[in-house]
């Protein structure tokens, strides 16, 4: 078992191939409202051209 799969298994999750969808996480245990299932820092973030009028870009100005 690879490190990612071991880590997910310890949290009650399995990485699985979902036909027609790609990879996804499957719950192996019951989770309750308010439970944190997974939490990590984002790898990247960028504004979307499709929602240019629907969002605030001031957060991204410090990166320009």
Walkthrough of the structure:
The chain is an alpha+beta fold and 64 residues long. The protein has a domain at 1-29. 12% of the residues lie in helices and 19% in strands. It contains one helix and two strands; from the N terminus they run αββ. The chain has one helix spanning 3-10, and strands at 13-18, 22-27. A two-stranded antiparallel sheet has the order 1-2. A hairpin with a 3-residue loop joins strand 1 and strand 2 (22-27). The radius of gyration is 17 Å and the shape is extended. The termini are far apart.
Give the fraction of residues assigned to helices: 10-25%
Quickly give the structural class. alpha+beta
Mean pLDDT: 79
> Order of strands side by side in the largest beta sheet?
1-2
Number of strands: 2
Q: What letter string, H or E per element, gives the SSE order?
A: HEE
First-last Cα distance: 41 Å
| Shape label | extended
How large is the count of helical segments? 1
Tell me about the biggest sheet?
Answer: 2 strands, antiparallel
Fraction of residues in β-strands: 15-25%
- Give Rg in angstroms: 17 Å
Low-confidence stretches: none
InterPro entries: SET_dom_sf (IPR046341)
């Amino acid at each position: 078992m690879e490190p990612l799969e071991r880590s997910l298994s310890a949290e009650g999750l399995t990485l699985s191939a979902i036909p027609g969808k790609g990879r996804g996480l499957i719950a192996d245990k019951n989770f309750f409202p308010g439970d944190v299932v997974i939490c990590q820092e984002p790898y990247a973030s960028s504004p979307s051209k499709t929602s240019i009028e629907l969002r605030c870009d001031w957060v991204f100005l410090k990166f320009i």
